[in-house]
Design goal:
Layout: H1 3-17, H2 21-28, H3 30-67, H4 79-87
Amino acid sequence: MRRSEKMRQFRRTEIALKPSLRAVLAETHVADVAITWLILLALESAFWVVWPPIVRAVGFVFMAIAIMDVPYHSNGLDFMDRCSYWRCP
């Protein structure tokens, strides 16, 4: 074999041994894991957005059952409102 033929053969094997980044990511399922992780973070954020109103509504219902009347609800800020404003920027 001549030197140029050896170089061509070497270049072919080098190219064949070095897969593209897209092929590596497709084979390792990195995109699937990343999408799953982002969906879980979105669900967690949605849970934390919905949780405080649910807690307040359940507390209101339990208070109404406990005192057998409509609980007092002030028009101003109560302790729970002030705590939620302190936590949020």
